[in-house]
Amino acid sequence: MDASQYEGNFIRAASPAEGVLLLGLCRPPVNAFHTAFWQELGETFATISDDPAVRTVVLGSSLKHFTAGLDLADPDIQLVGRGEDEAPRRAIKWRKHVTQFQAAITAIEECTQPVIGAVHGLCYGLGIDILCACDIRYCATDARFCIKEVDVGLAADIGTLARLPKIVGNASAVRELAMTARDFDCREAERLGFVSRVVQGSREEVIVAACETARVIASKSPIAVTGTKHLLNHSRDHTVRDNLEYTATWNATMLQSKDLADAMEAFRMKLPPKFANLTKL
């Protein structure tokens, strides 16, 4: 895998193991997101989705914090709707800006490959939106979280309010955190089910743990892993009956894969299986 192709103005990239892509958010000093940053993030994940050499992605930070959230000094945000003297026309411009922003973060969720969020330091505002779009979330013991938007006079609109209630399954806790904008720590995040693992330490330790899990996932059949992510996302947004019927149709094709036969043969021979990459689109 050529990880360098995913290097950008605000993203660092490396491949710590076969099939594993490590991305580090990098806009000093605190990874505050302006328009060019979130656009680059969305475009990066859209490109990754079509790269069969990437089996799993770890999304972390190259700086002291994961992210302090939105850069409120971003001139693009301040200029949206300016020059329009009628509220509906300003609203149309704002809506387009928000939906484009949402789509950039949704690109993480829609990425073909599983994405593991590895958090240390501050994870405020947009950081929660980003983590909610990840498949697996780990955090270091120094992580601090906050749904910060009400403190700047708005309701979170990039994904937290849509996804977080379905992740943690505790409506009271979500409403409290979203309406008070209070900080919560790694243990509360784990207790709520927002993160599945707390790693003792900070950046290095949580990245190592996430990359090890990514390595294990990358060793599995990409057809099985891709299908599992796709079907879990479908399950979240549909009824049990709808998902069962959809899964039956999906696997009617996928059960014919060579991966299944290779896995069975490797199990019989007591050898680790090897699977080919998906075909590049």
Automatic annotation (TrEMBL):
CDD domains: crotonase-like. It holds the Pfam family ECH_1. GO terms for cellular component: mitochondrion. Transmembrane segments: none annotated. It comes from Calocera cornea HHB12733. The keyword S-adenosyl-L-methionine does not apply. Belongs to the enoyl-CoA hydratase/isomerase family. This is ClpP/crotonase. GO terms for biological process: fatty acid beta-oxidation. One of its GO terms (molecular function) is delta(3,5)-delta(2,4)-dienoyl-CoA isomerase activity. Pathway: Lipid metabolism; fatty acid beta-oxidation. The keyword Cell membrane does not apply. Keywords: Fatty acid metabolism, Isomerase, Lipid metabolism.
